[in-house]
TrEMBL record:
<keyword id="KW-0547">Nucleotide-binding</keyword>
<dbReference type="GO" id="GO:0005524">
    <property type="term" value="F:ATP binding"/>
</dbReference>
<dbReference type="GO" id="GO:0016887">
    <property type="term" value="F:ATP hydrolysis activity"/>
</dbReference>
<protein>
    <recommendedName>
        <fullName>ABC-type quaternary amine transporter</fullName>
        <ecNumber>7.6.2.9</ecNumber>
    </recommendedName>
</protein>
<keyword id="KW-0067">ATP-binding</keyword>
<dbReference type="InterPro" id="IPR003593">
    <property type="entry name" value="AAA+_ATPase"/>
</dbReference>
<dbReference type="InterPro" id="IPR003439">
    <property type="entry name" value="ABC_transporter-like_ATP-bd"/>
</dbReference>
<dbReference type="InterPro" id="IPR027417">
    <property type="entry name" value="P-loop_NTPase"/>
</dbReference>
<keyword id="KW-0813">Transport</keyword>
<feature type="domain" description="ABC transporter">
    <location>
        <begin position="2"/>
        <end position="237"/>
    </location>
</feature>
<dbReference type="InterPro" id="IPR051921">
    <property type="entry name" value="ABC_osmolyte_uptake_ATP-bind"/>
</dbReference>
<dbReference type="InterPro" id="IPR017871">
    <property type="entry name" value="ABC_transporter-like_CS"/>
</dbReference>
<dbReference type="GO" id="GO:0015418">
    <property type="term" value="F:ABC-type quaternary ammonium compound transporting activity"/>
</dbReference>
<dbReference type="Pfam" id="PF00005">
    <property type="entry name" value="ABC_tran"/>
</dbReference>
């Protein structure tokens, strides 16, 4: 479990990124921070592994304040996946993944074996593992980024807009893949995005943020859609202009669900 208790962050230049933030993130679930640019998502995410230290309040992992932990050891014990995969271009894919393990003291052979195993988990084979990052597509590079985040089998995986730089179709594929991985691996995932559809697709718990890390609403996607807290949330999730409204039409005895613009979204069963 990760807990934010009255957490604030003011950067040395006086920018207040987060005013006062409280949240509990249950273990083995996916929590998504979603909000527009500059609302403090990345700052909040990075407080978990001490890439950013709060200037007020506490962040606790399983009841232990991260401020009491060695930052380097903490960072190595938590998976981190960033937007542009962040791979070393002159090192083969397998070595990019093995590097984290080597830093943790795993010997070379075991590190390579584990790297290949975790690359297989994210859908990459041995021939791709032997390539350099630049020889892979953007979507494949992101898979390598995820593999690297998972290499040490951390309990917590932090993901900062990991699918932001790939095209929409690959992005959907990666979302499906992450959901599959989550069922298989059971990690505590904290995921940052500014895309509400992505947040709803991935989050067990979705945290909609306003500027300064202010929480507009926290909840399961269906609950947010059913009961948006205010007009800001309704508009952010696309309820205000009928963007998500669906209705049922009878077509040859089948109940077809149709969106506001008349496009079919599916068929009602039962
Ligand atoms: N090192 C820093 N020094 C000063 N201000 C910072 C620093 N890092 C972030 N900020 C500011 O803090 C606020 C929150 O930034 P943060 O990156 O957490 O937002 P975000 O929601 O992740 O945005 P984006 O989606 O654009 O990445 C912004 O106003 C940003 O400019």
């Amino acid at each position: 479990m990760i807990e934010y208790r009255s957490v604030g962050k003011t950067f040395p230049d006086g920018t207040q990124a987060v005013a006062s933030f409280d949240l509990t993130i249950p273990s083995r679930t996916t929590t998504v921070f979603v909000g527009s640019s500059g609302c403090g998502k990345t700052t909040l995410l990075r407080m978990v592994n001490r890439m950013v230290d709060p200037t007020a309040g506490q962040v606790l992992i399983d009841d232990v304040d991260v401020a009491t932990q060695n930052p380097v050891a903490l960072r190595r014990s938590i998976g981190y996946v960033m937007q542009h995969a962040g791979l070393l271009p002159h090192r083969k894919v397998v070595d990019n993944v093995a590097t984290v393990l080597r830093l943790n003291g795993t010997d070379k052979k075991a590190a390579r074996e584990r790297a290949l195993e975790v690359l297989r988990t994210v859908g990459l084979d041995e021939s791709q593992a032997r390539k350099y990052p630049g020889q892979l597509s953007g979507g494949q590079q992101q898979r390598v980024g995820v593999a690297r985040g998972l290499a040490t089998d951390p309990n917590i995986l932090l993901m900062d807009e990991p699918f932001g730089a790939v095209d929409p179709i690959v992005r959907l594929e990666l979302q499906v893949e992450l959901r599959r991985l989550q069922t298989q691996l059971d990690k505590t995932i904290v995921f940052v995005t500014h895309d509400i559809d992505e947040a709803f697709a991935l989050g067990d718990q979705v945290v909609i943020l306003k500027k300064g890390g202010e929480v507009a609403q926290v909840g399961a996607p269906a609950d947010i859609l059913a009961r948006p807290a205010d007009d800001f949330v309704a508009s952010f999730v696309g309820l205000d202009k009928g963007g998500r409204s669906l209705h049922v039409e009878d077509r040859d005895g089948r109940k077809v669900v149709v969106d506001a613009s008349g496009r079919p979204a599916g068929v009602l069963e039962g």
